[in-house]
Amino acid sequence: GAVVSQHPSRVICKSGTSVKIECRSLDFQATTMFWYRQFPKKSLMLMATSNEGSKATYEQGVEKDKFLINHASLTLSTLTVTSAHPEDSSFYICSALSGRAVNEQFFGPGTRLTVL
Amino acid sequence: KQEVTQIPAALSVPEGENLVLNCSFTDSAIYNLQWFRQDPGKGLTSLLLIQSSQREQTSGRLNASLDKSSGRSTLYIAASQPGDSATYLCAVPGAGSYQLTFGKGTKLSVIP
User: Fold this and answer.
1) A64-99 tens-digit pLDDT
2) In contact, B51 and A102? CB cutoff 8 Å
3) Partner residue opposite B100 with nearest CB, options A6, A102, A105
4) Does the beta-carbon distance from B32 to A103 stay under 8 Å?
């Protein structure tokens, strides 16, 4: 149990386009999900906290108008990178709070975004 | 602000050896600590979670310990195998928050 999926796993797009990444909790409900960004050989950097039914909370330095987050249901959060630029190229990973007593987070397999 | 440090940054061992990965954190007011594994280009796989009230957790060949007062955790891997090669990350949630702060990881290579 506690499986999180992401779609797509890999995407290549042109500069100026928008890209949507989906994060789904497959076998549990998650009122809270998190979006991370990871640069090569670096650790994960939290971008924002996604709460079902309310606005996302963004970390300092993360542009909310560029990285749109929608947590429309208890099993789905989406991250839309708007007007993508090459510097947005990165590995994006989501996680979902399990809601179990231990409040464990489960992570998706990640999405590799390349902006040309 | 919570800071998490992992030592060593990289480790190479021959197959069959037992090994220890270290994690330290600056703010001991945590309510759990998680160890993850990340394979190249992949997401994170949760290995073990230790609650602040626990001192250790075991799963197969893995054993994680937690000394909250000293701000340290160790991940012990017994009888290492080439398939254990990956980057191991430890992470703790912030005070009053579920947001995780990660260490930079230890890249483990197990040589056949």
Assistant:
1) 999 999 998 999 999 999 999 999 999 999 999 887
2) yes
3) A105
4) yes
